Amino acid sequence: MPRPRSFNDLARSCFLAIAVALVSSSVGAQMPSSEGADGSADAVTNLKAYAEYKMGHYDTAKEIWEGLAAKGNTTALINLSNMFTQGNGVSADEKKAFSYTQQAAKLGDARAQHDVGLAYEKGSLVDRDIDKAAEWLRKSAEQDYADGQFAYGVLLATGRGKGLNSVSEADRAEAIAWLRKAQAHGQTEAAGYIKVIEEQKAKPRE
């Protein structure tokens, strides 16, 4: 006779079934371009991995995400980055986490591009490089990612790291434009920066 299923087995099956049903019911939603023609199937697989992760089955989640990451799935890459950042089910490893973020950024993920841009701006895990910071933050901003628009606007507004007094009129105008876009997308700090930039603009140059 088959072994009776335990409560945990039943709960796990139900949880996974609900997860799959939620994604299956929204197959018509637009999927990230990096997921390709099999995007809806990958979304279901990603959600299965997330369900395993939330239940503490880190090895299973990691294995699923690694399989998706090998296919260029940026959601899986971001989740692997988070695992190694937080040290859940693996030894915390910031360098390995950042390598996954870099892969996702190169594949066009706006969140990852923002994070890579900030890393170059701050010199965190990479050598500080303002030009590369600007390049990655602009890529993120151009995808309508609010945090990317905000960070790129602030970078321009601060003279690309040189200070408010060194900002060109062109960079100041572009900074305000990006910050207004970030504000329109719900970025709450943008308004304060716009006010500071406009006040600085009104001051006569010495």
UniProtKB/TrEMBL annotation:
Residues 1-29 form the signal peptide. The keyword Signal applies. The keyword Signal applies. It comes from the Bacteria. Keywords: Signal. This is Sel1 repeat family protein. It comes from Methylorubrum rhodinum.
